Amino acid sequence: MGQLITYGLLVVGVIYMCSKSFKYENISRFGWITIPVYCLIMFVINVNLNEMNLIKSGIIVVIGFLIAYFQQLQAKIKFTDEVDKHDRPVIKIQRNWTYVIGWFLVFAASITLQILWSKEMTTQEVITQLSDEIQKDLLVWRSFAYKSSWYIWLLSGINMISYTLLIMRRDKRIQDAIRRR
To answer: Rounded to whole angstroms, how far apart are CA atoms 25 and 92?
Structure first.
């Protein structure tokens, strides 16, 4: 019964996370800069630099960028006349289906990398990782509480940074919404 409740909560979390992608949300410095930089710092701290890991890192960077490129394809930007408490313009984004599909692709890639490069995973471990990813997406501060393999930190960081940079290329005003004050 307890496992059924856990799975039910997981499904509700996935549905809620997906539904957020179809609503306009404010672009924030914390989610668009701080968390990706934190992921990349955790990558640097956790990686054992050797020739094989450099090759793996190159593959991950390409995967992360390609998924980010796909994720930003349907994103819609809405500019407002509002400013936040730091006097930055409030800009909203609606991510849409490509973002949701990309989120699942990042999850699938992280599971695949973990199986290929680390160990086999049980179904329970996959569900636990999915639960962790949903919690990190819904409760942004949870991103700082998880210990992940270096390649998951790199994939997450590169994907988020690439998404941010690709969205910023659309309009220079987006930089103003996430700049430091």
So the answer is: 5
